[in-house]
Amino acid sequence: MLTYSQLRALERPPLRSAPTREFYLHLTGNMHQFIWGFDGKKWSESDMIRFQFGERVRINMVNDTMMSHPIHLHGMWMDLYAGGNLDTNPRKHTVNVQPAELLTVDITADAPGQWAFHCHLLYHMEAGMFRTVAVVRSLEGGSIDANA
Amino acid sequence: MPMRNAPLTFMTTVAVMLSGQAGAQDHTGMEQMPSTADMPMHKESAQTDDQQAERTPPGLDVPPLPAGITLDEVFGAADSEPPPHFGDPVMDEQIFGFVLFDQFEYRVTDDDAPDHLGWEADFWVGGDLNKFWWKSEGEAIFDGPNEGESENDFLYSRLVTPFWSLQTGVQYASEWTPDDYEDRWSYVLALQGVAPYQVELDGSALVSEEGDVTLEIEGEYDLRITQRLLLQPRLALGLAAQDIDERNLGAGITSGDLDLRLRYEITREFAPYIGARYHFLVGETEDLASAAGEKTEQWMVLAGVRFAF
After folding, report:
1. What span, in angstroms and rounded, lies between the C-alpha atoms of B114 and B109?
2. How many angstroms away from the CA of B82 is the closest CA of chain A?
3. Contact list, B25 vs chain A (CB under 8 Å)
4. How many cross-chain Cβ pairs, A to B, lie less than 8 Å apart?
């Protein structure tokens, strides 16, 4: 069986560097009640996730649910930490996070604006497993309510 | 399904990059970087990158800005709440409703007691945590005198843990014969949910208008023989906290129903079944019935359909 740890980029993609910031993001939900979200909140209850333009940010995703979730980021690549070094980590726009798994991605925030970040099981997305990612000039200032 | 993420796609159309602003970024964020000591492999991946040892922001390509939009405007829009006329990307606060007839069946008794129609149904409407819940159950003679009984619970239901809802409200119970109609209101406090191993449980404590306290407990389990064929054992018990003369109930466990149903799910929403029920009285209630010359147990064969919409 092939796993993510065997994936390698053939050539070093541009914009590779070590992360300057990292945070944890828990994938949370309840199959029985069909409640889905990140860090225990669905989209309408959440603030935007903010990236500073130009930063290299690492997200450690922890899947607390009993389902696999394909997590998709619009607008920027997620460089999957696959056990290698930064030269060979593969680029993904969607990463499958297995139940009880810790999965790490590095992102170069090279696209200003607001972007969708969500589980690509669309029923989960519609139930709230969705965040707005804002690539902003500075992380100073208050958080941004996604559902104003 | 149309993706209603207009605010996002709008911003993305003006997604621009300018290295000047990125170059102004300093390294002040590094002191706050959380420890990865518990994940040595992760730490290693960050440290082996000697090509970017300085951890400078990467050099970003700079595509031209669309006419009439400045980079400041793009950052301003990115750092503010979406305008009110932008639709929500996901509709995650919808109100849903559900109707489930868990039992809708014809029950044939093993003696000269009349056969009857029985039902047990749930109706709910609400959101993730808060629901209005209506539970209805009862039986009525199908072919013969107009006799029957029913219990209807009207409850506010609040999800208190991932698998358990606390419910409170009122129950309207009624019994009727061709020349009599009796009814009773009770206050209800219920706990409904799924126990480990997917055992569905529903317990209700009732306080009637007369102040009598009773308890109803139901448990059922779906044993999957195949993906479509299920065997469902079910046990319902009634308890009373005191003797209730007018209802012929004695304190303690009063009665029970032990059911077994074999159902075939043509779809999840439509599943015919056959089964059997053993109805029995217990304890003082049984003694009361025996003294009055009534039966204290009864077997029934049943057939019906479970459906939902």
Report:
1. 7
2. 7
3. 52-55
4. 177
Distance between B222 CA and the closest CA of chain A, angstroms: 15
Closest CA to A111 of B38, B16, B76, B250: B16
For the purposes of burial, counting CB atoms within 10 Å of the CB of B96, is it exposed (0-12), middle (13-18) or buried (19 or more)?
exposed
pLDDT reported for residue B8: 44
Tell whether A29 is covered by a domain: yes
In a domain, A5, yes or no: no
Q: CA-to-CA distance for B197 and B212, rounded, in angstroms?
A: 34
For residue B33, give the chain A residue with the closest CA: A21
**Contact between A18 and B52 using a beta-carbon 8 Å cutoff:** yes
Q: Name chain B contacts of A44, Cβ cutoff 8 Å.
A: 88, 90, 92-93
Task: Please indicate, yes or no, if residue A45 is contained in any of the structural domains.
Answer: yes
Q: In this structure, is residue A57 part of a structural domain?
A: yes
CA distance A142 to chain B (A): 9
Phi, psi of B90 (to 5 degrees): -135, 145
Mean pLDDT of the B111-134 span: 93
Q: How confident is the model at residue B39 (pLDDT cuts 50, 70, 90)?
A: low
Domain that holds residue A70: 15-136
Show the tokens assigned to A90: 């593969």
Domain harbouring A128, CATH code: 2.60.40.420
Q: What is the pLDDT of residue A54?
A: 87
Q: Distance between CA B16 and CA B241 in Å, rounded? A: 72
Predicted confidence band of residue B117 (pLDDT cuts 50, 70, 90): very high
Q: For the stretch B231-264, what's the b/e string if a residue is b when 16 or more beta carbons lie within 10 angstroms of its beta carbon?
A: ebebebbbbbeeebeebebbeebbbbbebebebe
Q: Which of A55, A113, A128 faces B74 most closely, judged by CB atoms?
A: A113
Between residues 92 and 111 of chain B, which touch chain A (CB distance below 8 Å)? Answer: 92-93
User: How many domains are contained in chain A?
Assistant: 1
- Tell me the mean pLDDT in the region A31-35: 88
Q: How confident is the model at residue B199 (pLDDT cuts 50, 70, 90)?
A: very high
